[in-house]
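Q: Could you predict the 3D structure of HTH araC/xylS-type domain-containing protein?
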Amino acid sequence: MASGTETGTYGFRFTAPSHLALCELFAVGRDEIRHPSYRWDGEERKDGPLLLFQYTLEGEGMFESGTETYRIDQGRAIMTEIPGDHRYYFPADGSHWSFVFILIRPSLILPNWEEAKLRLGEAPYLPPTSRPVRALLEIWDQAGHGRITDPYTASSCVYSFISELCRYAVAPHDERRNWPEKVRQAAEYMDANYRSMISLDQLSERLGWSKYHLLRTFAAAVGQTPSEYLNRVRIEQAMRLLRQTDMSVEQIAEQVGYSGGSYLIKVFRKMTGLTPGGFRSEEGQLTFSRMFFEDYNVDRRFSD
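A: Sure. Here are the predicted structure tokens for HTH araC/xylS-type domain-containing protein:
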């Protein structure tokens, strides 16, 4: 099983029958950069034509496109074409830049890509729990386990990822479309900062609302209190780490923002009916790639 800190790039060069319409996966990778020598210039690349989607997991990098400059921090992505008038690099004052990326040949998929990019922009923010990010991490995981072994599987991976990206671009928050703006801001902040200890006071101060008004408004719009929403985000991330890494329960608890493994076990069992160990081992139970949780009673207090 792949480690949560593992890095590397997997390239794919399959020969498919010319009469079949298959999407072409060029590469998928994960890296952590700590030196300013990291730099790519889209006008100097020789491996195009390619479409690049690169998503920041931690830290930050820089992206220049034409006359625009973006700081690509946690939760932000780069969407660009190779070759092209762009540059992305590690800033001289940066500490680290951890990201996952996918490179795709544009044949067949270019119109979908262009539609998604038109709606999202070339440096979009996507929550780490969003479907496109989960799909990308799943492709990385499948590649690391040697499961993308033919052009049909590779094509399916590409089409699934692009479809999720297009769906997100059309309705990025689905049910969030009717939420009040500050409720969306609160949810997005928790999506991006679930590893931190986030209190109701912290959220209310950030949004300029009283904590009681935030609690009532968030619960009415979302059907959950902020604490319940944050727990759901954390448990979904814990499920991903249990499936894709060898990290201990204590390590996963730290990664997702809980004070210790015992508390993670308590919340995990309450929400899923399983212990983290039981979920990971899959012994005597179905294998879940995702679990949907029943709605909570919105009267519960905001506390961890």
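Q: Anything worth pointing out?
A: The longest helix spans residues 151-170.
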